[in-house]
Amino acid sequence: MTLLTTGAETAAALDAADPLASFRDEFHLPAGRDGSPQIYLVGNSLGAVPRAAAGYVNAELERWARLGAAAHFEGELAWLPYHELLTSSLGRLVGGRPSEVVAMNSLTVNLHLLMVSFYDPTPERHKILIEDHAFPSDHFAVESQIRQRGHDPAESLVIARPRSGAEVLRRDDLLGLIAEHGPELALVMLPGVQYYTGQVLPMAEITAAAHEAGARVGFDLAHAVGNIPLALHDWNVDFAAWCSYKYLNGGPGGVGGAFVHERHVGDRSLPKFLGWWGQRPDIRFEMGTVFDPIGSVESWQLSNPPILTMAALRASLDVFDRAGGMEPLRAKSQRQIEYLDMLLAEVIGDRVEIVTPTAPAERGCQYALRVKVPGVDGRAVHQALEEADVVCDWRYPDVIRAAPVPLYNSFTDIHRFIGTLDRVLDELSG
Predict the structure, then answer these.
(1) CATH no. for residue 117?
(2) 362: which DSSP letter?
(3) Do 135 and 170 lie in a common domain?
(4) φ and ψ at residue 306, rounded to 5 degrees
């Protein structure tokens, strides 16, 4: 292990020893003002584009031009089963079996479809547990599901909040809230990684507690998939959904994904919104109107898969596979976290607060940082970083998010980020 110091030579040594360093070259990173790559630390918002994506997408455009509708059926890349090309890779990333994982739709659409099946309120058991600072789309989806079932969010929504003066949710408080509302709790719907603070929630424990209380459990994995190792099948999670445009590098608005545990996929008693792509493929084109579902999570599909966005995602998933999946990526991420923690402590000190938990099991690669210099506006710091080609993002009311992504961010990126942040803080503090 390289001795960590604040000098640039440490970053260079860490990069030289990094077995995954070459994967940086497989991505286009946006160019800065001088033409060199930006310090791109917003993979938690939009991942970098894989260099292979253009070729994958152009191949489908070429097949469209050459074959027309016949491209649905011809060749190894036939469009009819194209989504299956992504299944194994996604399954490895989320810890799901092939029958449990599918690429389809967008994140919130998938959450709605899955809550139709797994939120089954009764007069006695009708509550949904979410977090106080849920991503707005999740909150809107849950509230609308409650109303659609004839209940009132004021009575049916249980909100998990951090303790007074705290930023993150405590494990014991979450589990206690599940137990407290257990007899009335129909569903627990939480993030795998909290989008604002970067906190990794204890998904296995939450799932066990929810099931013990008689509730089902689902996770929004938008900030978890491609960031931390997941084991949805082994954790016995009922369902999950995610997007692909963050850590999965699937492109803006890229196709989302869904997981349903195999104990549910064949249960025809589950309520479900139906579409013809969930119909058995061997009878789909008979155009019958009696629904006979695929015996997997694919039965939740509604319509033809979006081939061009799936092609872009497939290019990224191929990189994940060649990198060895999440275990080596997580190992590199933890080395980068250790290095960034050290630089923040030694160079930045108490001028910035790390909102993200410090325990390794409770954090992914995203940092939530709050400027603590009297008289210095965090938004001004964020703007100055942007002007210096260090790309982070700002989340209201007062957090700068920065995410060193192990697939394409280097240790040198981290060192330059801290050097720029140090200079900006000095300049703005006068």
Answers:
(1) 3.40.640.10
(2) G
(3) yes
(4) -80, 100
Q: Are residues 213 and 231 in the same domain?
A: yes
DSSP assigned state of 4 = P
Please enumerate in sequence order all residues whose Cβ is within 8 A of that of 294, keeping only pairs 6 or more positions apart, or say none: 278, 279, 280, 281, 301
The helix/strand/coil state of 2 is coil
Q: How many CB atoms lie within 10 A of CB 186?
A: 24
Q: Is 392 in contact with 401 (CB distance < 8 Å)?
A: yes
Distance CA 408, CA 59 (A): 25
121 and 207 in a single domain? The answer is yes
Same domain, 334 and 215: no
Using CA atoms, how far apart are residues 188 and 219, in angstroms rounded to an integer? Answer: 8
**In this structure, what CATH number is given to the domain that contains residue 332?**
3.90.1150.10
pTM above 0.85, yes or no: yes
Three-class SS state of 165? coil
Chain CA centroid to CA 80, Å: 27
Name the residue range of residue 365's domain. Answer: 8-37+325-428
Tens digit of each residue's pLDDT (9 = 90 or more) over 350-408: 999 999 999 999 999 999 999 999 999 999 999 999 999 999 999 999 999 999 999 99
- Both 311 and 338 in one domain: the answer is no
344 and 311 within one domain = no
3-state secondary structure of 404: coil
DSSP 227-251: TS---HHHHT-SEEEE-SSSTT---
